[in-house]
Each structure stands twice: as C-alpha cells, then as structure tokens.
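Pair request: fold both.
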Amino acid sequence: MIKLSIIIPFSQNEKDISLLFDIKKKFNKNEIIFVGSNENIFVKKNISLIRKISKVYFLRNTSRAQCLNFGANLAKNQMLWFLHLDSKIHEIPKNFYKELNLNRINSFKIKFDNKKFLINSFCANLRSKILKNPFGDQSYIMSKNIFFYTNKFNEELIEGEDHEFIIRSHCKGIKINILKYYLISSARKYIYRGHTLLTIIFFYKTIIQIIFYYFKNLKFFNKNAVIIVFMKYPFSKNSKKRIRAKISNSIVDKFNEKMIKRLLFFFNNKKYLNFVIGLRYSDHKIRSLRYFDKYSKILLEDENLGIAMKKAYIFFKYIYKKIIFIGSDIPDLSISHINLAIKTLNKYENYFIKTNDGGFCLFGTKQKNIENIFTNINYSRKNTFLNFLNCTKNNYVYHRALNDIDTSFQLRNFLKK
C-alpha cells in the first residue's frame, strides 16, 4: 500500500474542519499535515481536538503556496497529496491509490456541491482532459521527487500558484494523470461573488496565466541535456568524513560551501542549462532543503553513490536526451568541461572525465537502460573508472585527469594554493 502525506492549508477565516475527520476515517494510515494562518482563532480554540487527527502548524503572514511548501518539507512519506480544506472525498474509494501513476502528477475530476454549476465542472474536466491542466481544487498527488524537481509552489504569487506549478511541470517534462474519481469542491466562491461574473473572471485569468506562465518558463523546454550535481548540505558531518577526522569541521564546511557556491554561480549565469541538485541529505533535512531552496532537486537521502546515480538516471532518462552527472568537490571542473561533454555526446554514447585517484568526476550519457550498471560498481576502489568504462559502450574519455579533494593532504594543498 502506498502511504501518503496529506497536506491541507487553512486560511485566517476557515471554520469547517470536517475534511480532517473524513480523511482520518477513510485514510487513517496516512500522515495528515494541517498548516496555515497564525491568525485563525477557530483552529487555535480547537487545537487539542485537531492534534488527535493531524499534525498542526501555524505560520505568520502566510500564503497558500507557503503552507503547501512548508508541509512538503516536513512530510515523512514519499507521496504528497495537496488537498483544499473545502473539498469532499466521499466519492473517492479507499483503494484509489492503486490508480496512481508514480511518475506523473495525479489529479481528480471535479464536481461542485451545487448542481447549478454543472457547466463549470464540465468545462474544468474538459480542460483537464484536453490540456492536461487541472487546477488546485482538483487536488494534486505526486512523489517528492516530482515536487522538488518542479521546485515547489511559487511563494511570490498571491494567486494562481497551482496553475503556475502545473505549467512549470509541463515545461520540465512531467506529465499529468487525471484519475477517474471525482473530488467534490465547494461552490461558495461562485455563490458569494456571482456565478456569471466569476466564471468570466476565471476564464479570462486562465487564458492570461497560460500565456504568461508558459512564456516565463520557456527556458525549461530545452530537453537536450540535464546536469545533475551531487551535493550534501555543506555543514553536514556526514560529508568528507575521512578529512574531518584530521582537519577541523569548520575548515571542511568552508571548503564545501565554497565549492557549492562556485557551481551554483556557474549555473545561475548559464540560463540555457537545465541543472538539478542531487541532494544527498542524511541529517539536517529541513535545513538542507532551505539551503538549496531556490533550486530544482531530487532527494536521495541516505543512499550510497551507486544507488543515488541509479535513482537519478531512472527519473530523468525519459525526460532528457543526455544526462550529465558531476560532483561538487572538483576545483578544476569548469563549465567548459560540461559544455564539451554535452557537445561530445552528439557523437558518442558516453563521456568521462576521470580523476587521479582512479575514479571519475563527470559521467555523461545518452545510452538507455543502463540503470543496473550504477549499482554493479564498487566506488571505493582505485579501478572504479575502468570498471565503469568496461560496462558501457561507444565511450569518449577526456584527455586529462582532474583532482578531487578526498584526503586531508589534498585539502591542505588546495588551501595553500
């Protein structure tokens, strides 16, 4: 059974919390995260009751996007379900998770709780079917990797953060799966503001947002190559363990941070390159997510390098033509090396830059279905590069080996320079 972290935001004036009870009754084995405005008096008065059902968090001066992102950062399960508080789930069966596509953003069809709005629900479902463009009141279910690769909801937006997120996911190569079940949504906003007026406003805004958000995210349409930079939180005591045994933590932390900032500077100034942080975060989880807050990520937790590379390769192999893996601790590695790798892969299947210790610091590939190679290699031996080379075909090896920083001696020499 797939376990979900169900994230529900609440605003300052929300008073109907019946959805929490419905979820607890129907999906009691899943995590519920209830996060919203610090100014909601009703939630505070009923906090002891709500805490029996879900985890509750209050944020100051918050938006819905901030609440959703905050909940995703705290979620303990790998699948995230973003749900509006005014939704009704009685038409969704307990075993609906069997219909989920783990490689896509899943969303429901929509009905309103008032039959006067059948045309609105019909048009919304037609838009979702044809354009694959569901809105937030249809709910989104996705893996953490899809969420953090798409790079969360835009907290700078006052409204339309759900629509912008879906369009950005389209541009980044993520597909949408519309489930066959109906989510019941409240029609209160139509009743309060007027059915015809609000329908016209929503239609107008939808067209404007589609044009604006697609134009804004055009840079992500380039599916030629993705660069995956394997990093750890720079202040993690699990990074550079061998060096930390001989040199103070503060020096290692400073080195890590300099190397990471150097790479981020490269990519921030090369807007045409798609790059993703392969974040290996075993400790300080929330702090590491905040440190890399602005960047697309794929979360790799405690996995060793082989498993981490395999996981990243499987995720991206059908989105990008070429995948470039690099480390963050190679002072000599520059953006020109990466550009050369992308160019060389037009002719060769695989591209390597080896290191002087017998490993490699850059591996580029356009070869398909090689995921098992990553876990068949022992990365701690001095023949790592040769073993990896022998498992691939049509390879090109860069003419010079680069130095990585894996020992205290290498770090001292680097600092002297």
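--- second member of the pair ---
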Amino acid sequence: MGDDPATVTAAAETDAGVGRPARCPPGSFAAAPALDASPGDDPRTPDAPSGPSLSPSRAGDFLTCPLLYRFRVIDRLPEPPSPAAARGTLVHAVLERLFDNPPAERTPPAAHSLVQPEWSRLLEAEPELAALFEDDEEQRSAWLAEVATMLDRYFTLEDPRRIEPAHRELCVEADLSTGLRLRGYIDRLDVAPSGEMRIVDYKTGGSPPAEFEARALFQMRFYALTLWRAQGRVPKLLQLIYLGNGEIVSYEPDEADLLATERKVVALWQAIERARANRDWRPRPGRICEWCAHQAICPAFGGTPPPIPDDPAPAVLDEPRDNGPV
C-alpha cells in the first residue's frame, strides 16, 4: 500500500478527544467497528458484560517481567510521569490532530502550531504533568525542542498530504474462543479501496536493539490478530515508525503468523493466571530495569514488594500512549 491518495481512502473517523480514552469501554465484548461503518457509529459502545482482557502493553509487561505486571495490574502502584512518556503522549496527540487539517495544510508549520494547544489539553486532562518542568525552564525548552525535532523527522518519513487515514486512535476488541478479550488502540489504520489494511504505530524512541525488537513486533502482531478476529481480514502491512532515529520497520503478516500469535497470547494468559493463582510474581532483571519506577521495592535491587492484595483489581489497565521505552 503506497501513500498515494488513489490507494488510501477514508472510512469512519474515531476521535479520541483529549489523548486516548483510558481503555476500551468496560463491559464491551463488541469487536471493532466495521470498516464500512457510518461516521456516526461509535466503536466504544458497550452492550455486553466484562470479562478477562489483555492488551499488548500488559502482555509485554508480563513477558518482560512478571513482577512489573503485578505492580501495574494487581497492585495498581502509581508511577510518576516522566519527560519521555509525556513527550510520547504529546507527539502522538499532535500527529493525530494533524489529520484534522485538509491535506494541503498537513505541513511541518501546522504540526508545530499544534504543540502548545495539545500540551494545554494534556495538562488539563493530567494536571500532574505540570510538575515535570515547573522549576526548570531550560529543561522544558530542551524537551519542547525534542518534540519539534521528532515532528520534523516524521515529515521525512511520510507525506501526510498524500494519506487519508481510515481511523486514528482506533479502539479494537475481539474475543477469543477461550473467553479472553483482546483489546488495544491502534495509532492509525489506513484502508485501501480494495480493503487492504495497514496498521501504523508511532514510536518516539529509536528503532530497538535486538533484545527489544521481538516485543515491538509482538505488539503489532497482537493488533493484527485482534483486527483479524474482529473483522475477518488479515491486515496487509504492519508499520512501525520510529521518530527517535527516523527508521520505518514494516512486516507483512499472514494467517499462519497470526494463528501462532494467538497461541502465544493464550499461553501467555494461562501463565498469568497461574502466577495469579500461585501468587508467584518473580522479577526478571534486564535492560528494561533502567526505566522501571519500582526499583526501590524490587527484590532484584534489594527491595521488598508490598503484600499482594487479597482482592486484587480486575486485570484491566489503561493503555499507555507510547508503549515502553523503545
């Protein structure tokens, strides 16, 4: 699928408002909206009871470190906002809003003009972000310069004037035969007139080293599996756009690939359920520890985790805007 307007067409628009909603709506077992849905259709309308669900970020947490999954999903421990995470949120928001403009107005100056309004919207939604730079204007200026650099880099990788996304910030959900619900948010979905789909995900880090590459591709296969089970069509292309170093990673899945992903997801959920039943959440030290907010209570660093809650919250957690440090 190229970026030519003749091959990429618009379908229903999914407007996520300020940032992305916290999660696909509680209680919704519905699949993602049909791609030929009318603009008035709401993909986030729940009409069925809730059940066990898994997102690619939470799946990635467990694969990376079961204890991190526990801290985030079972304990619901707070994590302070970081400049890198806030940068990812802001860049995603700007790129989402950029496509509100007519094609000819999707330019670098237009993107830069969206930075301050989108940052204000994010501060209104998450006031705690204001503490990131309240006493350091120099750090704030450097951070904004990084945002501007990433937006400029985006325009070297794609020409948004030649793209008309079918969906932005699309909530996708699908049930597996096991009863597990897959859910997540796709940054952008492009649909050709022939029905071929391209899933696009923006990353504000650089393309990952070998130890993180499998996780990034697993996330994209997870989205593809969810969309396939929801829509009955295998996406043509999975595309990761790394704004940290200006690289694009593309992958073409097939049914065999997605069936293998489904088996992995089911096995992963079974492992999560065993860990929950056995109250066995072991740390798995690695490079990801550099970004972990919970080192002080991690046994791998000499800490002691809090007691496991007797009545843990359901295994549903907000999906971050930018998945992980890569």
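Observation on the second member. The longest helix spans residues 255-278.
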